[in-house]
Give the backbone structure.
Amino acid sequence: MGNGTHQETAQVAGQKQSNWHKISWRLLKHELRRGELTIMAAAVALAVCAVLSLSVFSERLQLGLMERSAEFLAADRVLRSRGDEIPTEWLTRAQAENVASARRVTFNSMAFANGELALVDVKAVSDGYPLRGNLETAEEPFIQGEVAEGLPGPGETWVQSTLFQQLGLALGDRLEVGESEFVVTRVLSREPDAGFNVFADSPTVLIHFDELAATALIQPGSRVNYNYLFAGNPADLERFENWLLPQLDEVTQRWRNVQDGDSPLSAALERAERFMLLASLLGVVLAATAVAVAAQRYAQRNFDAVAVMKTLGGRKSQVGKIFTLHLLLLTSASIVVGLLLGIGLQASVVGWVSGALGYDLPATGSGPYLLAIATGLLCALMFSLYPLLRLLKVPPLRVLRRDLTASGLARWLHWVISGGTIFLLMVIYSGSAMLSLALFAGGLLAMLLLLAVSRLFIRASRQAGMQAGSSWRLAMAGLQRRAKENSMQMLSFSVAIMLFLLVLALRHELLEDWRGQLPADAPNYFVVNVASQQAEPMQAMFDRENLSATTLYPIVPGRLTAINGTLVRDAVSKEERDDSEYREGFGRELQLTWQADLPEENTLREGEWFAEGESGVSVESQVADRIGINIGDELTFLIGADEFTVPVSNIRNVDWNTMQPNFYMVFSPNLIENMPATYIASFHLPEERQPELYQLFRDFPQASLIDVDDILQQVRDVISHVSLAVTFVMVLVIGAGALVLVAQVQASLEEREQELVILRTLGAKSALLTRAITYEFVVLGALAGVIATIAMELSIFMLQTQVFNMDPSIHLRFWILGPLVGAGIVALLGWSVCWRLMRQQTGNLIRQLN
Amino acid sequence: MALIEASSVSRNVATTAGELQILSPLSLSIDAGEVVAIVGTSGSGKSTLLSLLAGLDLPTTGDIVIDNVKLNDLDEEQRAILRGEKIGFIFQSFLLIQSLTALENVMLPAELAGSRDAEKQARELLEKVGLGDRTTHYPNQLSGGEQQRVAIARAFIGQPQILFADEPTGNLDSATGAKVEALLFELNREYGTTLVMVTHDDELAARCDRILRLSAGKLLEPSDG
């Protein structure tokens, strides 16, 4: 027995290598096996898995959508130039940056064949075109084509089906364009960049760019669109873009990408992107909450272990190392599991989505993996920090004074750490401090409100419970006694249920909204160039054939020349510009129409629709905002040789995603009624009636038909795509929410374990106790459901109006679903945990409590 | 020479009604190898005295010296090291770590102290307490008596100079309690440990060399025995 002084003792202990890492490893091994860390590990793994699969999936989806959308441009970026050609240096630079380029020149001209003339859209393209998407050609007009390799050869041309109809062409015929003659070698059945401009109604004549000069069609003053197409990987493109953009002439040159908003996809895409971001954020926050609840519980369970270790000679640093290593090992293992699950999950989802879409989604970089690992580490370590600090502060005296816990650690520290971590996660995840701040502040406010409301509810429920039978009375008494703990629990129940309902409702709203835009009978054909005397017979034909068609709108081409007497910019050419004041205009000819009634699918934003006999013009809202047009402004238009001025009567919202003729300017009928006009409409022809198409339009030979089925199909593809993604996100969020519920129920049952055992020992039947607990959870769950529903309606209102630009809506069925789901799930969880407890012998239970 | 020396030791606690003295100033000394019982009714201050003597808590006034080391001069860390080196514990509620097996619970103090043959020692001790076949069981798979025997094995593993026992049979039925008691005394004799035991079991107290009787925080009999 050593009799050394304490200094010697300390030295001896210091020299010996303590085996803290073995103890740590042992604790972890056993606790994992005994399922005590399951919730904690599952929460961390879920956070990692959710972040990884969501970000990989949404990134791949994003890239996939971009690729698909790029096909609408036949490129990733398009430089559109009026007039002059661009400096050759720009193309050299593109090449140096690994950005592929191709030229596309389009203009209207007359084509001549078989003794007949037709207005055509000549399209001369250089090698490489299309940089994105494919050209499809066929051997016969109006049939499905096949992907074409290359471009028309020297002296050859590919032309659209309608021109075959108009000029009575056959393959091998000669077509005169300008001073050149081309042999028609194929039917051009699909161009990726055909676009949505239904006013570009003349059929395309595709020739090689090298043949263009020989036609001698481009003369000074010709209206020609010079387009330069660019494509490359995002990083190269961005470098090129950064170099190029400052050099562009803002008036004559325009830089376009797929997100520029004139694609009907962009709105759907943007919404989907926001939804994914939001839902993923919610998922991460939920998973983090589960980690927090589980970490708290983990620390509490280990209070005794720490007290015993300290009593038995464990130094603070040793104990600290034991539990830190324990936590690190647990976190790392959970992260690995989460990564594996995430990789598996996103691979199968991507496989499934690719299968559904019929093409592969491109791969991503390492970004999402790093993000997922960082999320797992942050979640586990930051949320465990306070419980761990508290755990390490447990005094050894607890071995004798069993009620002692850690002291001297401010509670607010916990809130600051947790809040800070959630905020940090939001910023990392969304990449936007503003969005995070808004969500965070909103969330904080909602939490405080929820807390207040849940206390109120609990107080009120006591009165109700007092009248009821014994299980109910016990349940209510329990609720009341633990009002403070319960209101915290209810808060997390409510938050979990609310987020769950929110994601469910939002998904429903988004899908409905998209479906609403593209109903099964969405118009799939436009008919243009209908002569005015044929408008009525055509309307009669639509009626007779029972085709769902839009109104036949008259079209008169014209230009906007002045606003309130100030000339608009496109009325003067670049050379003529001087310092005098000009306003921004359209830069091009407009298709003007007149209507007595507000067009379908349009809504008034400001002002009133034309009164009987009123003269005025209705302006589309985005244009009004861009150019700065207000109600009462006087707009001057030039139609043919006539110039006239009208006041703006109203501003109209137009849904550009609908497949129907849409107009920037709609006049009251009395103004341009007598101008020479052609008519346009869109209609739906069911697939099985496609063969009747010629028959139906035989009496209208001048009218041109434009098939937008391809475009529709592409939009539907994207939407089904996004719907899948949204559903996937929802499932993950629901998983995270369920985990929070399980963690919370377990934690709260542990808190009342002692009481249960005492009641049990005193002879309370297990059926009575189980019922009492179950009732308590039914009430908690139902109240949480009600609160969650209210909170969900408020949030969804904010989201719909502020984030998604949708009309707000009330979700009545959620008012039933919310409380039911809450009561059902929470009670079921409570019951199952309680049932397991009740199956054990009372003696056994008492022993466990010690 | 005294192994444990307490001089004018008192303990006050702060309550809402002001300072409350739960242990009046008392002095005592315990020699190496002595077996001492601290008895008294509930609330008499037995456990408080035990916590002070074991260095789990510090006295409000007075000094405690263990093996020539003044506890007041040590901080929490140094007291932990001292406990690890010289002191073993047995508690009424066993206080085994639930997620460690019987063997690992016994090994724990030795491992914290950095002992290399912790497992060998632990196995031997478990054999001695008759649980050689229970090494891989978790505490909740053992009966109360078995758990307390594991705790006894744990208490002896570091071959401590002093063993503090807080109501070691308080949670056990009398038959089991008697067995545990016998085991405790047997091991104590074998290792020549100084044993300080809190109990309100008079029979158990009677088996000790000396009885310290506490009542309302005061030591009733002189401590020089």
About this structure: Residues 8 and 134 of chain B are 45 Å apart (CA to CA). Strands of chain B lie at 2-15, 18-31, 35-39, 61-66, 69-70, 87-90, 162-166, 194-198, 210-215, 218-219. The first helix of chain B runs from residue 46 to 53.
